[in-house]
Amino acid sequence: MALQQNTDRIQTTHIGSLPRPRPLLDAMKRRLSGERHDEAGYQALLRDSVAAVVRKQVECGIDFLADGELSKPGFFTYVQERLEGFEARPARRRRAFQREIEAFPEYYAEYFQQAMLGAAVVPITPVACTGPIRYRGERLVQIDIDNVKSAAGALGVPDRKIFLPATAPSGVGGNEYYPSEEDYFHALAAELGKEYRAIVAAGLLVQVDDPALSEIFADPELDASQKRRQAQLYVEATNHALSGIPPERVRFHTCYGINEGPRIHEADLADVIEYVFQINAGSYSFEAANPRHEHEYHLFERVALPPGKVICPGVIAHANNIVEHPELVAERIVRYARLVGRENVIAGADCGFSSQAAYRTEVHPTVVWEKFKALSRGAELATRMLEIAPRRGRRALT
Description:
single chain; about 400 residues; alpha/beta; TIM Barrel; three-stranded mixed β-sheet; 13 helices
């Protein structure tokens, strides 16, 4: 059995980010705004916060767990902390999401003021490459590794059940320095790969987060051939960054958005699945509880899962405060298990619950833990259901 496959039961996981506790948010905000702060005290608070969030995951029945991304203010800030050669570009826009905003301007004007943008500890500002790229995050990633390993080890969780998220090359920022996109992504992948390998060398799983892959297919300025070319470039860059890492030590995540909204201008899973499966990973996670995408399990009636691979479909939502009934969670799991094999389905979440360090998150922290309990109970129910009900045969790729 591959490292991430199920053996005797359906396992559970999530995408990584979790709401940060208020004291940590306050300390992070002071630190990032340049105010005087006690660095040793901040690091101690971070360690304690990671220990607490790891304990909560274990108590809720999560099998593959993470540090909650508690050290990361957000991926744009993370990029500037860990990679040289980038500067803030406030005017840079995500074209794919802009189409959604333009379709519902009143909704998003209110949403951004009250949710992500208005509640973040630091401004959410895109970045662009303006000089040679060099990885400088060795100390920061080691802090993340040490904190999560210490917290999980104290609870008897083995290293092979711990993952740390890291951004995909496509999610870093635009290019204003290298002569071509190919040169840019080649240089970026070579440096990002240093973080991936540090995580794996510590005995953990690395999760590559790549929401930009799905965004390509919702970009109104790209024609079909341009979308295919851009997607292939992203895949090649990610695999270059993963070179030398066994696929079974890698998780790959793509999604459509971190927000609650109409979400009508999004790609379909069918648009991106062939590129997802080209990534040299052991498991692949994607949104499947989102009402815009829940029906897409039917895709696996005609698309075969590559041998030895695992899917982690979202069976709980990350963008609403409704706690899913365990029987619904089980039903969602079973749909996939009967198509791709019960050993090849890990129960997951649609996306992270706090992709930015923010005082207000889409799902209230107390609700997150109830969702995780429902996830665990649903996986238990699905395990029993799959012991009784035979699974249907898989169909070949058409």
